[in-house]
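Table S2 (continued). Query chain:
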Amino acid sequence: MSVIMPTYQRLPVTFVRGEGSRVFDTAGRAYLDGLSGIAVTNLGHSHPAITEAINRQAGTLLHTSNLYHIEAQEQLADRLAEATGMEQLFFCNSGSEANEAAIKLARRYGHMQGIEQPTIVVLESAFHGRTMGSLAATDGESKRAPFAPMLPGFVRVARNDLAAVQALSTDKRVVAVLVEPIQGEGGVWTLDDAYLAGLRALCDQQNWLLMFDEVQSGNGRCGSLYAFQRLGITPDVLTTAKGLGNGFPIGCCMARGTAATVLGPGDHGTTFGGNPLGCAVALAVLDTLQSEQLWLRADPIREGILAAVKADVHDTNTLTEIRGTGLMIGLEVTVPSNQLVADALAHGSLINVAAGNTLRLLPPLTYSDEEARELGSLVAGVINRAQENTP
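Corresponding output:
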């Protein structure tokens, strides 16, 4: 019996090697990766630039702590600031940590204005993490109830309902709005353009911070370096992680304007965040993404996958909706979802199910056109078999 806490229902496979778009199990069987470690390995597995950066930095210096200047951290901060327009950055180790930093920043921002109970507006079907602050911002009573009482200071409204946010204009406790511009765990929903523009205007009017959680949608996945750049709405606070390290743990909370002036010495901290190794890896990720403009592959890969799904699925009525942006793909299906992931694994591919019956695909940006068609055909096969086995 494993002594690992059973916080995951793990599939019956162990992977020992990855190469490009495929991973290999202990028996040497190959699987086409359509999940990227949940939107992490955007550059695929064993990318030579990432391997080289790890080897080079590991032979030089791994850790000193943030009590001292870290050259790679400062270089990475400059690069991200230039690429995003953000002005101040805090490095951590995960998406949840990045969102915790954003929550603290918003509360500090409120206290600086004399607001005793700063409140952040969040959305239904949102997912921001599983640490206590990010969990309180996350939707889903089943996720929160076992860990009550929740951190106060959040008010939840429906997705894409601008009127619901506008109705909070008279609530003097509100200091910020936190959203995923493209919701992942909640079912792969891209927030409406008009809604995002309305949030930006309302936050400007009310002196609220607009905070984007791009932990999953960032780092090239959605057709631009960060999704906000494609969507045309710039937040005051931007969080990211996952693909920033292509598998090495690193996260970041970025801020601009007034939000960039909020946190000072002693307000937040991290032992491992922004360490030399993590920052060297993230620099290699940025170098690769920017030099090859790999985010431009997101739409062609998406189109190839979806074309193959539509061509090979037996009954198009089993697909009720296709959602998402770039390589965040959500296929809402009518077939039972409980065996889809296991069936895909049995037939040589890695996929995921989110929010009930949404089949979620998060392939790497390094897919070839042939691999895109292959994943689409594999997914169609999963749907077809589920339909055939449904009474």
